[in-house]
Amino acid sequence: MGEPGSNLLTAGKITGCYGVRGWVKIHSYTEPVENISRFGRWQLRRRGELQDVLFDQWKRHGKGMVAHIAKVDDRTLAESYRGLEIVVEADRLPGLEEGDYYWRQLQGLQVWAREPGTEVDRVLLGTVDYLIETGANDVLVVKASAGSIDDRERLIPYLPGDVVSRVSLEEERIEVDWYLDV
């Protein structure tokens, strides 16, 4: 997840030790989980400060990942990394095809809606606060903002071409066809 005004993204978290030779368990926020191993430069956040770290080996383990921290060869030292966030630079993310977006790009965009089948002007529902992964499709969590039609929070399926009719990063706007139950 992105950090406001920053080029840094939290890509995962060290959740514990794995074995006795400096390996750690990692909960990856990337999709697929293996993508966390592909950034090539990682930092750890410890008490608000960032420190460089080198993971020299990665393995898939169950639903997550395990990694070896270079020059950490015992469990006691590895334990000191438990709970630290793994941070990467956003510009290390691979480019996407046109029409595809990272969640962080959608957060903060205004959501404008019009009822399907009508030609009524679009109305502001609010801004994208965050997204939820449901398995079937992602969901935009839209919170009321200055100028929105009401104070409601809405959950809107992120279905391009169906519910989502247009995304413009330049205009900081998402247009949706959505029933306005006001």
UniProtKB/TrEMBL annotation:
Alphabetical UniProt keywords: Chaperone, Cytoplasm, Ribosome biogenesis, rRNA processing
Claim: Nucleotide-binding is one of the keywords in the record: no
GO function terms (MF aspect): ribosome binding
Pfam family, one: PRC_RimM
SUPFAM superfamilies on file: PRC-barrel domain (SSF50346), Translation proteins (SSF50447)
InterPro entries: PRC_barrel-like_sf, PRC_RimM, RimM, RimM_N, RimM_N_sf, Transl_B-barrel_sf
Gene3D superfamilies in the record: PRC-barrel domain (2.30.30.240), RimM (2.40.30.60)
Domain RimM N-terminal: 11-91
GO biological process: ribosomal small subunit biogenesis; rRNA processing
Family that this chain belongs to: Belongs to the RimM family.
Subunit note: Binds ribosomal protein uS19.
Alphabetized PANTHER family for the sequence: RIBOSOME MATURATION FACTOR RIMM
Purpose: An accessory protein needed during the final step in the assembly of 30S ribosomal subunit, possibly for assembly of the head region. Essential for efficient processing of 16S rRNA. May be needed both before and after RbfA during the maturation of 16S rRNA. It has affinity for free ribosomal 30S subunits but not for 70S ribosomes.
Name listed for the protein in its UniProt record: Ribosome maturation factor RimM
Annotated organism of origin: Pseudohalioglobus sediminis
